[in-house]
Amino acid sequence: MANESTYAGIAGLVANIYDLAVLTAQEGNVVAPFVTVFNQTGSAPRVFGAYSGGTFAAVAEDADMSAQAFNASASGTITPATYGSQVLLTQRRIKSDPANAQAEAGRYLGETAAAHIDTNLAGLFASFTGGTVGSAGGTLSWDNILRAQAYLRSNKVFGRYTVILHPVQWYHLTSGTAGVPTFIDNPALKESIINGFYQASFSNMDFFADANIASGTAAVAGMFAKPAIALDMRQAFTINPQWNASYSGSGAWELNASMEYGYGVYRPIYGVKMIGTSA
To answer: What CATH number has the domain bearing residue 106?
Structure first.
């Protein structure tokens, strides 16, 4: 036999599509680099909790210390799910326009995956319990930003804070002629793969603009430290090709992209929700 349609005939194409899709998926994830990420196999839900313990007290010279309670209690569950998307490339399209088909499929699958994860993570900002600033219909101000920072400091949340806003919220913050602080750049972020979303830094806070935040008169942005949100990856983004011989008479390759993950608010007090119009 000769001229069989086998995977070998498209192996290089699929590899290039996969590489481009993965790169696009990484570049489009604004929130994910700044959250707590778990990696494990299996699909069992992750139950997480927090410890409670005792306090320090004065100890007499002739006293023997007594153990105090140190117990963990469940505070939440993250249940993973599988998500997928498919692109179908016909033999005609592959033969006549392989380069563009490759680029289009890679961008589409990568952007779809990135937007899906990022939208889900950004949707968790509304569940932060560390404080709330701003109001529906109003525009976020620098007073709101500094108040949110004060909430986190008062909650004894350690670390550098990530601030992710809708692009229009960032515009309202920076379009004024007065009251806008002098920004600095974080070199590590400017040189990272998400530099296109990085805006500026100020007072131990890094600012990003993310269009995957749901828009509206009460768009919810977030200021948070890394433990606020958890992303529980069970199966990384992958593409499985499958030959469909009956499609279009001459056959087609189905590029089946999938990933399995769970997400949730991990330490809600480690984040502050910021409400303001994105109009």
So the answer is: 3.90.1690
Using CB atoms within 10 A of its CB, is residue 103 exposed (0-12), middle (13-18) or buried (19+)? middle
User: Sorting pLDDT into bands at 50, 70 and 90, what band is 221?
Assistant: very high
What is the pLDDT at residue 8?
54
Residue 149 near residue 223, CB atoms below 8 Å = yes
In 3D space, the residue among 159, 133, 151, 127 whose CA is nearest the CA of residue 227 turns out to be 159
pTM over 0.85: yes
CA angle 187, 27, 224 (to 5 degrees): 65
Site of tokens 């600033």: 133
CB atoms within 10 A of CB 277: 20
What CA–CA distance (Å, rounded) separates 137 from 48? 36
Q: What is the pLDDT of residues 135-194, one digit of tens each?
A: 999 999 999 999 999 999 999 999 899 999 999 999 999 997 778 999 999 999 988 888
Q: How far apart are alpha carbons 150 and 204 in whole angstroms?
A: 12
Q: Is residue 61 part of a domain?
A: no
Residue 48 inside a domain? The answer is no
Residue 167 lies in a domain: yes
Domain that holds residue 132: 8-41+79-276
Please indicate, yes or no, if residue 73 is contained in any of the structural domains: no
Q: Are 251 and 7 in contact (CB under 8 A)?
A: no
Assess whether pLDDT exceeds 50 at residue 4.
no
Number of independent structural domains in the chain: 1
Q: Is residue 11 within 8 Å of 101, Cβ to Cβ? A: no
* Sheet with strand 36-39: strands edge to edge: 36-39, 229-244, 252-265, 81-90
* Residue written as token pair 């499609």: 247
Residue type, 7: Y
